[in-house]
Specification:
Elements (H helix, E strand, L loop, with lengths): L1 H13 L5 H8 L3 H7 L14 H15 L10 H13 L5 H9 L5 H10 L2 H15 L5 H9 L2 H10 L4 H10 L12 H4 L5 H13 L19 H11 L2 E6 L2 E6 L7 E3 L5 E3 L2 E3 L3 E3 L17 E2 L8 E2 L3 H10 L3 H16 L19 H13 L4 H10 L24 E2 L2 H12 L4 H4 L2 H10 L12 H9 L1 H6 L6 H6 L5 H13 L5 H12 L5 H13 L2 H4 E2 L1
Antiparallel strand pairs: 1-2, 3-4, 5-6, 7-8, 9-10
């Protein structure tokens, strides 16, 4: 019944009627016939190209009604500004930005803010960091510098700036044959795995298709029947002829025209050939040599290539993968939609975000199906997808949840821990260090990233190292000081304690303090008039290390 109701509601949107209750009531008499006339996947019958924000709201509202869930109230402008700045540019808004936004009275100001942030250079830098953390992961300073030298981060930033289609990006990082100076960093995705072909296969499946296939290495997946051992070793085979090489143009991935044939055994001891296969039973036929045949690597097996780039086989397994598996694979669009949804909404429609298998059903399957098809129809337009989610009423709900509602219904905003980059950048934004260049370095960013490594995890659990940094670190103590912070220095001027308190709250937490908070802070500061500056530093430290600051909520 949930499927048919969702379908009918979207029909009402198509006809210009967005009254959910009216659509449901007037459709009761036809619900059965529509259900019987559609496929089991009703979402596939809904045309793409509708207002995606409305589709999101109606899809989630249907879940509220069917499950008797009450949605939270919308957030106010100040909280929206904080949330959208963190999600789209990776920092809290500056005071001037917040004041300007709050002063506007036009009804479209939230949409205009989303557009402005999506078009900003900061958005490109921020999303490149997010992609990097997801696709490569955290590492040490030397490795970060190497990936920068290889052009990987510049490649990602350029892709975001130009809003290049996601299917094109995935093609380039898997094929790893840069065709222009701007794309030279694309090879790093494979290069970073250091010729570990199983690591490559597991990363490609998880990052690009949203499916973990690790469990299928020794046997068929025990919980998801569609994931077979042949898919694991078939994906490995697509990459096992590849090898890292260093060229004058930077890191590249060579590929042999021969080899890579083997058998894999299951736990029962039976063996099978590692054919070129992947999920959805995508299969690429390849002539295998005879049992005792000896392959010979000849120039005639390669296409003619100019310059110093690696030779390209006439039959390239990576190219076959891109053309016959990746190109129109149904999980390509669905995985990215689920990941961006998870980034914006706190968890995926399938949770965790890299578990698009039959054992982890979507909370709203029709909505995920529609958004995925709409994403593909848009040309894999990531920016359009982000805007649709950000513009929905569902994204703009309050995070207060006093009724213990299951988070999978998205009836409230789900608090999201700030990534390392977001936390560091937000600290610098609110405190305005006197020596900005001293604090905004690769070394400090990597140090934060190693302490706060999680991006889009299933759950967030603080550890001792994080606690020690925030509570007993010379770095934080010095940063949150009158000596280093221009903002705190501005509060040292003679002013009412209540005024200083309001400025602290608005600047650091993005909101005005409640009356009891003002009273407490006034008592704390006024009781230490001989050490007023130290008291202000203490309050600023308490706010910056609080959960309210460290989470996007």
């Amino acid at each position: 019944m949930v499927r048919s109701a969702f379908y009918l509601v979207l029909l009402s949107v198509m006809s210009g009627n967005q009254g959910f209750v009216h659509a449901q009531e007037s459709a009761n008499s036809t619900r059965l016939s529509i259900t019987n006339s559609t496929s089991s996947n009703v979402g596939s019958a809904i045309p793409v190209g509708l207002n995606a924000s409305h589709v999101i709201d109606l899809g989630l509202e249907q879940g509220y009604r069917v499950n008797s869930v009450e949605a939270a109230k919308p957030i106010d402008d100040s909280m929206f500004a904080r949330r959208i700045h963190l999600d789209l540019v990776g920092r809290v808004p500056r005071t001037g930005e917040l004041d300007e936004f709050l002063s506007q009275t036009n009804s479209s100001k939230r949409s205009a803010l989303v557009d402005r942030l999506l078009a900003s250079d900061e958005h490109a830098v921020h999303m490149a960091e997010v992609y990097d953390a997801i696709l490569i992961g955290r590492t040490n300073v030397d490795q970060v510098k190497k990936r920068m030298e290889a052009g990987w981060l510049a490649y990602l930033r350029d892709a975001v700036v130009k809003n290049r289609p996601w299917n094109q990006i995935t093609r380039e990082i898997v094929l790893a044959r840069p065709s222009s100076p701007e794309a030279r960093g694309a090879a790093w995705y494979l290069y970073a795995r250091k010729d570990k072909h199983q690591d490559i296969a597991e990363a490609v499946s998880k990052d690009i298709f949203g499916v973990r296939i690790d469990c299928a290495q020794c046997h068929d997946h025990p919980l998801a029947d569609e994931i077979k051992q042949k898919h694991y070793w078939g994906l490995v085979a697509f990459f096992n002829r590849s090898k890292n090489v260093d060229t004058p143009q930077g890191p590249r991935i060579s590929e042999s025209a021969i080899g890579g044939f083997s058998d894999f055994a299951n736990l029962e001891g039976s063996s099978s050939p590692n054919e070129l296969r992947f999920l959805e039973d995508r299969y690429v036929e390849e002539v295998r040599p005879g049992k005792d045949a000896k392959e010979e690597d000849k120039d005639e097996l390669y296409v003619s290539v100019n310059g110093t780039d690696p030779k390209i086989p006439k039959f390239s397994r990576r190219e076959q993968f891109v053309e016959k598996v990746l190109a129109d694979h149904p999980l390509l669009g669905k995985a990215m939609v689920n990941r961006i949804w998870g980034w914006m909404m706190g968890r995926g429609l399938v949770h965790p975000v890299d578990s698009l298998d039959s054992f982890h059903p979507a909370s709203h399957p029709e909505l995920l199906d529609w958004l995925s098809r709409d994403f593909v129809a848009s040309g894999y337009d990531v920016r359009r997808l982000i805007k649709a989610i950000a513009s929905s009423q569902s994204y703009q709900l309050d995070s207060a949840n006093t009724k213990n509602v299951d988070p999978k219904w998205f009836a409230t905003a789900l608090p999201k821990p700030l990534t390392a980059e977001m936390l560091q950048r937000s600290m610098l934004t609110v405190l305005e260090p006197v020596e900005t260049s001293r604090w905004d370095t690769i070394e400090k960013r990597v140090a934060f990233a190693n302490l706060f490594p999680d991006v889009l995890t299933e759950e967030s659990i603080a550890n001792v190292a994080q606690g020690l940094l925030l509570s007993n670190s010379d770095t934080i103590t010095e940063l949150v000081s009158m000596k280093q912070s221009r903002f705190l220095q501005s509060l040292a001027a003679p002013m009412e304690t209540a005024t200083a308190t309001e400025r602290l709250f608005l600047r650091i937490l993005g909101r005005n303090p409640a009356s009891d908070e003002v009273a407490y802070c006034k008592q704390y500061i006024d009781g230490r008039m001989d050490q007023r500056e130290r008291a202000i530093e203490g309050l600023a430290w308490a706010m910056i290390t609080s959960a309210e600051f460290r989470f996007n909520h």
